[in-house]
Amino acid sequence: MAQPMKLSFTQDVGETSPAKREAIGALRITADGRKFRYAKAASASIAAGSLTLAPLAEAQHVNRPATPASVGDRVVQVTVGISPVAENAYEDGYLQVAGSDGQGRQYRILSNTACPAGGTVVCTLAEPVRAALTTDSRVSLIPSPWCGVAASATEENLPAGVATCNVPAGHYFFAQTGGVGCCLAAGTAGVGSMLVPGAAPGSLAAMNATLDVDQPVAGVAFAAAFADGRHQPCLLTID
What we know:
Strand content: 35-45%
Radius of gyration: 19 Å
Shape: elongated
Distance between the termini: 23 Å
Number of strands: 16
Order of helices and strands: EEEEEEEEEEEEEEEE
Helix content: under 10%
């Protein structure tokens, strides 16, 4: 059963925590309409005002054979390829059925065991299996867009939100995804310009209609024109 959106939180939008205090991806909306997603930093620290990008899926954990599972089961085993799986690497991520029996369904993962390359990972689901999995089923382990975020220079990746404070490596924080924000600028941008991830890690830049057609729009320049290297106002539209 889907859970209602959470309305009270144990962590402020301007602080970090070494321990998880909310569900990763939890949406928080402040009284002034700004939106935030609960996130976990990857293995590098993130500076305040940096745009973070979502982690990529591990190719060796996609389209993999699953152990048969019946309707109602909450535990599914998946045989991975030549990349190992760390314990709880897919916490609050998703098990998606990519092909054959049960295809098109997805289930949120509560926890997962560690396993070596070529081994079998055991996933505990937040919801029961709705359509039986068979030996023909192929499943994918997909991380939450907010688990393992980084101020990356991979411009074509999915924006996950702007850090509103300095975030130590591996810490949990609220990444801002909507409303008036303050983010590192790359280059110049006039008020009203659509903004995409910039070439400088953690930055936003004006969209180039010719060159940036494959980049996701994260917001709009707001109130003042962008000045390169400064932290500028923007209206974030990720959520």
